[in-house]
Amino acid sequence: MDEETAAGLWSSFKMLYMIKNLSNKLYLKKQLYRLCMKKGTTMLEYLNFFNKIISELDVDVKIDEDKTLILLSSTPIIS
């Protein structure tokens, strides 16, 4: 409320609502590593959820290989 500029207001907003703290990251990683495709879920819905978790984690280190392994291991085997 005390901010006089849009940039100052945006900076305050980011500090309050957009900081990813450790507990949030841990929660997202837990979701990611426990991910399992449920019956009745379409592949598109599943991929959207998977990508949402990945984007919220916002990590760059060796994630492509990990993403592939997690995705493959969490989808059902089709025979």
Q: What can you tell me about this protein's structure?
A:
- By secondary structure, this protein is an all-alpha fold.
- It has a domain at 20-74.
- The chain has four helices and no strands.
- It has helices spanning 6-17, 22-33, 43-57, 63-74.
- The protein is elongated.
Poorly predicted parts: none
> If you compute it from the alpha carbons, what radius of gyration comes out, rounded to the nearest whole angstrom?
17 Å
Please tally the helical runs, counting DSSP H or I stretches of 4 or more residues.
4
Largest sheet: none
> H/E order of the elements?
HHHH
C-alpha end-to-end distance? 60 Å
The count of DSSP E runs of length 2 or more, i.e. the number of strands, is 0
Quick check: average pLDDT? 77
Strand composition percent:
under 5%
| Structural class determined from secondary elements | mainly alpha
The helix content is 55-70%
Shape: elongated
Give a brief rundown of this model.
The chain has 79 residues and is an all-alpha fold.
Helix and strand topology:
Elements (H helix, E strand, L loop, with lengths): L5 H12 L4 H12 L9 H15 L5 H12 L5
Helix pairs in contact: 2-3
